[in-house]
């Protein structure tokens, strides 16, 4: 009798599909397939999204939205230069968020970061009731007493921005952390803010917008808190050719992996030491 039961059980297992994968594993595959192959992986990503929806419908709905935004950010998003659009909120529900840039070894700001600040200042003058978030931690090799955000805030105040409009996020070391830490500050201390405009270098706008919007959607879904959205952008136009399209996609992938908590794999993408999954 026992033998018969064991045979029946084994036979039944053989007829079932393979065990359902954990949602986190599927999400990692969604990110890496898209990050490595872009539109060539659309079919594979579609299969993975369907698998995720079957495993966890909330996550399935969330990641369908995130992946649509990723495609939008890199292919359809308008990157504004010189000024923000004129139809953004005119009150302090808007936060203009200027993303940091690695400091010189001695703790001074590079020209590209000052260019971003000039652009942010124009946006702040265009929207005089908006908050301005400066974001970026200590990246000066030989000066641990300064942070990107601290120097950025000082520069903006020296150029006329009043202190009570300024928000400083000075702990982050990556764009993903810019998004994560800025969101927490907004949630904790600025309940009226519900929209963000990203200011950065032109090549960095889609990348920054993606990570901020993905973090906003992800955190709000997981923690049932109010939603904040990236509503626009303004770019400091740069001729920086360091980041080609494939490199930007790689950095975006590292950032997305960091947002979902896979820091080890994220670092492999940041350092260009990853292996492509087979398509």
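Sequence proposed for the structure above (279 residues):
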């Amino acid at each position: 009798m026992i033998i018969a039961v064991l045979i029946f059980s084994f036979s039944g297992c053989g007829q079932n599909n393979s065990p359902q994968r954990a949602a986190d594993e599927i999400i990692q595959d969604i990110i890496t397939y898209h990050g490595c192959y872009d539109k060539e992986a659309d079919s594979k990503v579609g299969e993975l999204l369907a698998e995720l929806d079957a495993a966890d419908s909330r996550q399935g709905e969330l990641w369908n939205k995130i992946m649509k935004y990723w495609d939008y950010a890199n292919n359809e998003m308008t990157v504004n230069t010189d000024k923000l659009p004129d139809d953004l909120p005119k009150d302090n529900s808007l936060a203009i968020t200027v993303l940091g840039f690695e400091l010189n070894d001695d703790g001074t700001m590079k020209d590209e970061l000052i260019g971003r600040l000039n652009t942010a200042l124009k946006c702040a003058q265009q929207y005089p009731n908006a908050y301005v978030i400066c974001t970026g931690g200590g990246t000066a090799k030989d000066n641990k007493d300064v942070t990107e955000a601290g120097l950025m805030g000082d520069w903006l105040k020296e150029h006329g921005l009043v202190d009570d409009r300024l928000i400083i996020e000075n702990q982050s070391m990556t764009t993903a952390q810019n998004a994560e830490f800025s969101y927490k500050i907004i949630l904790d201390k600025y309940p009226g803010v519900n929209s963000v405009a990203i200011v950065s270098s032109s090549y960095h706008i889609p990348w920054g917008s993606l990570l901020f919007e993905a973090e906003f959607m992800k955190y709000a879904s997981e923690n049932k808190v109010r939603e904040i959205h990236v509503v626009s952008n303004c770019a400091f136009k740069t001729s920086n050719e360091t980041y080609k399209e494939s490199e930007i996609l790689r950095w975006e992938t590292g950032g997305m992996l960091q947002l979902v908590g896979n820091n080890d794999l994220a670092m492999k993408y940041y350092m260009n030491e990853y292996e492509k999954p087979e398509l």
